[in-house]
Amino acid sequence: MFTSKWYQRKSPKQLTFRKKSNAGRCSLTGRTVVWTKQAILRRINSPKINYNFRTRDIGFVSTFKLVPFANKLLALVVFSTGASSYFPAIEATHIFSVTSFFYSKGMLAPLRKNPNYTYLKFARPFRKISHIEVSPGSGVQYIRSAGCFGKVTKFDIANHAAVVKLPSGVRKFFSIYSLMTDGRCALKLKRKLSNTRSGF
Predict the structure, then answer these.
(1) Comparing 12-21, 104-113, 176-185, which segment has the lowest mean pLDDT?
(2) In the chain, how many domains are there?
(3) Which domain holds residue 137?
(4) pTM for the full model?
(5) How far apart are CA 187 and CA 170, in angstroms?
(6) Residue 3 covered by a domain
(7) What is the DSSP string of 86-153?
(8) Are residues 27 and 70 in the same domain?
(9) Is the pLDDT score of 165 beyond 90?
(10) Does 67 fall in a domain?
(11) Is pLDDT at 63 greater than 60 in this prediction?
């Protein structure tokens, strides 16, 4: 599966980017007059998060990265082809855990406890799920915050849809062919923190 030369890829895809913003600058001279969190973010490399996981290659989690000021835990997944990308982590994500995109129910059974992406139609009712996209190919848009999870309350196979209860309590229709992960988002203790001071 993994060859001895998987790490010798000559031109890897850039995994980070530098934020560019003119916020907090004087319109006449261009000098910085206000220093905010955005000024700090401009000096560091922000990771490019992949919210559209549909590759059938098997990969493993090599390391983690915490996004500053966003409380997002990302997993750097390296695939058997040599490609690598940052993906949102869930509670089941561990170092060297195997991850893949499962497109059939038979594939999903052996590696249920690993952080895998699959279709919403394979979700178990009233179990915790996260990182859902509304329609196939649109990318993950819902249940991405730290410690959040949703639950499938009803399937409508005739209309190819499922009703998902979001963390806010709202019930929304999603396509059963949309992406999702089985489990809660990482960093669930973040939900217990309270910002009671300025500059927290």
Answers:
(1) 104-113
(2) 2
(3) 118-189
(4) 0.75
(5) 22
(6) no
(7) EEE-BTT--TT-EE-EE-SHHHHTTTTTS--EEEGGGPPTTSEEE-B-SSTTS---BS-STT--EEEE
(8) yes
(9) yes
(10) yes
(11) yes
Rg of the chain in Å (alpha carbons) = 19
pLDDT of residue 54: 81
Average pLDDT for residues 58-77, to the nearest whole number? Answer: 86
22 and 80 in a single domain? The answer is yes
- Count of C-beta atoms within a 10 Å radius of residue 119: 19
123 shares its domain with 76: no
| Cβ neighbours around 53 below 10 Å, total | 22
**Does 46 fall in a domain?**
yes
Rounded Cα distance between 79 and 54, Å, is 12
The single-letter DSSP state of residue 53 is -
User: Across-strand partners of 32?
Assistant: 25
Are 164 and 174 within 8 A, CB to CB?
yes
Tell whether 37 is covered by a domain: yes
CATH number at residue 38: 2.40.50
Per-residue model confidence as pLDDT tens digits over 91-121: 888 888 888 877 766 555 545 556 678 888 8
pLDDT of res. 172: 93
User: Is residue 76 located within the same domain as residue 122?
Assistant: no
